Amino acid sequence: MTTVWSVLEITGVVAFAVSGALTGIRSRLDIFGVLILAVVTAIGGGIIRDVVIGNTPPLTFRDSTFFIISCASAVGVLFTYRWLDRYQNTILFFDAVGLGAFTATSANLAIQHHLDSLFIVTAVATITGIGGGILRDMIVKEIPYVFRQEVYAINAIIGAAVFYYSQSYLTGSLPLYLSFVVTTVLRLCCIKYKWNFPVLGMDSKQVVSGEHKSD
């Protein structure tokens, strides 16, 4: 189980790091900036999670494996980014795998730290899943992707809730895998069928008209 789960987590780290590196390149950052953005995207959510649940110093600072993998992924992107741009759907697939792995792992970690309420478990899992992406977008001065239509956080919330409730009925690692499958499949469905939240706003002409009326 450990080997399989490690592969899933590494897959997620690589996918998140690639996403961060590509964003850095598109934002015309230098090599150091691209590396930093890749690392922040891949492990930023995990660092926030560990601080929130009191798992300090964060695991990343005690085990540099994910940090090294993030840097290696970013270096790989520097040499292949023109090719990777053609395979966005593949990257999205691995991103979904990463979200599923991080959601299940973080929900389980919250339980292990005796934070056994539904709200805390789902909050911790969601922070881990979307935290790195939010930091990435803020660094390049963009509105975080998860706040613009994309149904992303909901997948993590549902996956974490599945883990929380399935513990009462399933034993061993089954809740972990069930949470992973549910989160990943939901994310893939959102990508395939373009499930998004509606964007609320007013037409610019209406805004101008309204301003004139108020004058």
Automatic annotation (TrEMBL):
<feature type="transmembrane region" description="Helical">
    <location>
        <begin position="64"/>
        <end position="84"/>
    </location>
</feature>
<feature type="domain" description="Glycine transporter">
    <location>
        <begin position="93"/>
        <end position="165"/>
    </location>
</feature>
<comment type="similarity">
    <text>Belongs to the UPF0126 family.</text>
</comment>
<feature type="transmembrane region" description="Helical">
    <location>
        <begin position="151"/>
        <end position="170"/>
    </location>
</feature>
<keyword id="KW-1133">Transmembrane helix</keyword>
<protein>
    <recommendedName>
        <fullName>Glycine transporter domain-containing protein</fullName>
    </recommendedName>
</protein>
<feature type="transmembrane region" description="Helical">
    <location>
        <begin position="6"/>
        <end position="25"/>
    </location>
</feature>
<dbReference type="InterPro" id="IPR005115">
    <property type="entry name" value="Gly_transporter"/>
</dbReference>
<keyword id="KW-0472">Membrane</keyword>
<feature type="domain" description="Glycine transporter">
    <location>
        <begin position="7"/>
        <end position="81"/>
    </location>
</feature>
<dbReference type="Pfam" id="PF03458">
    <property type="entry name" value="Gly_transporter"/>
</dbReference>
<feature type="transmembrane region" description="Helical">
    <location>
        <begin position="117"/>
        <end position="139"/>
    </location>
</feature>
<feature type="transmembrane region" description="Helical">
    <location>
        <begin position="32"/>
        <end position="52"/>
    </location>
</feature>
<feature type="transmembrane region" description="Helical">
    <location>
        <begin position="91"/>
        <end position="111"/>
    </location>
</feature>
<keyword id="KW-0812">Transmembrane</keyword>
<dbReference type="GO" id="GO:0005886">
    <property type="term" value="C:plasma membrane"/>
</dbReference>
<keyword id="KW-1003">Cell membrane</keyword>
